[in-house]
Amino acid sequence: MAQSEVILSFQQQWDRVLGRLRTEVGEAAYRSWLKPLSLLSGDESFIRMAVPTRFMRDWVASNYQDRIQALWLEEIGTPTDVEIVVLSPSRPVPKPALVDVKDEPEVVRTQEKEAPVVKRASPLPVETVAQEQDVQQITGSLDPRFTFENFVVGKPNELAYAAAQRVADAEAVPFNPLFLYGGVGLGKTHLMHAIAHQIRKAHPEKKVIYLSAEKFMYQFVRALRTKDTMSFKEQFRSVDVLMIDDVQFIGGREATQEEFFHTFNALVDQNRQVIISADKSPSDLEGVEERMKSRLGWGLVADIHPTTYELRLGILESKAEQLDVEIPQKVVEFLAHKITSNIRELEGALNRIVAHATLVGRSVTLETTQEVLHDLLRANDRRVTIEEIQKKVAEHFNVRVSDMHSARRARAVARPRQIAMYLSKQLTSRSLPEIGRKFGGRDHTTVMHAVKKVDELKSSDLEFAEDIELLSRMLEN
Ligand SMILES: Nc1ncnc2c1ncn2[C@@H]1O[C@H](COP(=O)(O)OP(=O)(O)OP(=O)(O)O)[C@@H](O)[C@H]1O
After folding, report:
1. How many angstroms does the Cα of residue 375 sit away from the middle of ligand 1?
2. CATH number of the domain that residue 93 is part of
């Protein structure tokens, strides 16, 4: 089937699925949650759809994903995984990625094989040496530990990881740019280095440049000063893959932004891969021109979410395995529970307890861990307040905030109140009596009972568990 026909038929099938969902869920829910979904890519076993916000993605995933999957199965006759990703609203749906995210259509592959880029396939030694020098002059150094193998994948980073791998493995540019964003210390740089390592290994002839936006700026200012902007432009515009880390730093710097914009456009126009990272999504970048924001959101925007307990545990276990010092499982779990800020701090904590154990010649225990990390543990006490929890839970269940303190015992208010107590225990460092006091002066045993009850319900009712997970994520963000 020709590419355009495949796109058309998937879109038509999706329209039919959407039509059926519309009848099932009603007009209001359809308009709020389903209409904004756009079909991004797909084949018989996998479809990817996009929504404009994270909240919407979580909502659609927990409330409609199973149904979408079931209807899609009915529509095309084979079981299909459905993935919902967040894409910035400014970004039009990228047409070239619409067919099959996992493999390019055969025809594209064949063409590539038949028409290799002659210049690079048979490199001239002199040119290669010159290029190497160019690359070394401008590229930042790559951390050899930051590889795909050393990257632990979990729910918060699976999209970013998959997108990074795709870019690293693809023969043709799959989406341009790849924009990775997320909070501090969550693995953006790690993924960029991993892409660079992989491409350099598979294609040593390719010119891959990785640098921070700050370094880009510094190089540009230096070129301006030495009146050598021509060769500056040349260096960048002749690369195969350009990665700029922490692009938020160019916010507010007009000249650098302008130059970056031209370089970016030139590379994208020549179909060279550009990969960008930032602490915010393109549309939220401050001090960056609108046209730039919009352009940055054209490819695939993949966010790395704050870590979950499971991911932190996975990372610690994998790092602990590489150490000479034995770390008891209890300590690993304790750290995963307590150090929630980011992965850099988590690694730092592990290194500190290992350094301490080695220095004093004692084994690692829970007590020494608490002692050595007391400052870090205090700083990591989550900052969400009980009042915020009460407000969010009341909103979610459509009850009044005053019901959180009232003596009413009707199930419709008692259950949300128990959930709010449970979340207060999970997300704050408040003691049971303190929590009880904030809920209309209740006794600590009432809070204990609420925590137990919610735990029980979570393990017996999947939908309930998902609801709690969603609330908890919304509160932690
Ligand atoms: N999923 C992961 N698996 C293993 N290690 C990870 C993972 N994510 C992050 N790390 C580690 O955490 C540390 C911080 O990651 P990184 O420097 O990539 O963060 P960042 O998002 O680029 O932060 P910043 O915003 O400060 O630039 C690194 O040592 C990295 O190896």
Report:
1. 22
2. 3.30.300.180
